[in-house]
Design brief:
It is a single chain. Helix content is 49%, strand content 16%. By secondary structure, it is α/β, with parallel strands linked by helices. The chain has a single domain, classed as P-loop containing nucleotide triphosphate hydrolases (Rossmann fold), CATH 3.40.50. Strands 2-3-1-4-8 form a five-stranded parallel sheet, with helices on both faces. A three-stranded antiparallel sheet has the order 6-5-7. A hairpin with a 5-residue loop joins strand 5 and strand 6 (132-134). It binds adenosine-5'-diphosphate (2 copies) and zinc ion. Residues 126, 128-129, 131, 146, 148-149, 151 line the site of zinc ion.
């Protein structure tokens, strides 16, 4: 039976968003990225967006209850299955999630701090379609537009050196403990995020369709 309640876990820059886009194209799960939802709230200047922005710009986590209230209805509405990207990120979020959904598998993508810093410094995102690029591996020198839609490429406000270091610290302190939490539940699968993205992708598809 295919696994349809899926969590992507891993430090910032591990490749969660990159993998998520390909997984949903192939398997038709609903992609729920709390980071993407929050950035949309920020750009629309909603109350939630105004509150979240300060936390995000510093690389800190937005308070648990705001995140849980934001994501819960979307998860419950995804009756054909979901791919959670960036949630849960704390023990409290994982506990809350377990009360309204069962998780089939947690794909834990690991990546060392030095590589996280290198990747996030070079990350560029399309304003039009959200496609994710990297200066060091799939963007030609000086390229400023998206190959898919012609949209403008931008650097996220939180992809700056000082903020990146804090985000990794926050990951280690608040999110990494979830590895053990899901290991104990017997649903954890660990992947090497430093491998090429096609390689990580085929491993994931193998797990999800086994
Ligand atoms: P996350 O969602 O986990 O923060 P992203 O998918 O945004 O990670 O990837 C972070 C950066 O690393 C992006 O610039 C992306 O293009 C690049 N990237 C993603 N996967 C790989 C990979 N396997 N090898 C090299 N670079 C990658
Ligand atoms: P990345 O995968 O590169 O770390 P995300 O796009 O997932 O980035 O998240 C960006 C920021 O949004 C986080 O640094 C945090 O401030 C906020 N955020 C996203 N998801 C959560 C969450 N589940 N709990 C708390 N804050 C979150
Ligand atoms: Zn685009």
């Amino acid at each position: 039976m295919a696994l349809t309640h899926v969590v992507l876990l891993g430090p910032p820059g591990a490749g969660k968003g990159t993998q998520a886009k390909q997984i949903i194209d192939k398997l038709g799960l609903v992609h729920l990225s709390t980071g993407d939802i929050l950035r949309d709230e920020v750009s629309r200047q909603t109350e939630l967006g105004k509150t979240a922005k300060g936390f995000m710009d510093r690389g800190d986590l937005v308070p648990d209850q705001l995140i849980i209230d934001m994501i819960r209805g979307r998860i419950e509405a995804a009756t054909a299955g979901f791919l959670l990207d960036g949630f849960p990120r704390t023990a409290a979020q994982a506990e809350a999630l377990s009360e309204f959904a069962t998780i089939d598998v947690v794909l834990n993508i690991g990546l060392a701090r030095e590589e996280v810093v290198r990747r996030l410094t070079g990350r560029r995102v399309c304003r039009g379609c959200g496609e994710i690029y990297n200066l060091t591996f799939n963007l030609a020198e000086g390229e400023t537009t998206c190959a898919d839609c012609g949209g403008e490429l931008y650097q996220r406000d939180d992809d700056k050196a000082e903020v990146i270091e804090n985000r990794y610290d926050v990951y280690e302190k608040s999110t990494a403990p979830l590895i053990d939490f899901y290991k104990k539940l017997g649903v954890l699968r660990t992947l090497d995020g430093s491998a090429g993205s096609e390689c990580v992708f085929s491993e994931i598809i193998g797990i999800l369709t086994a």
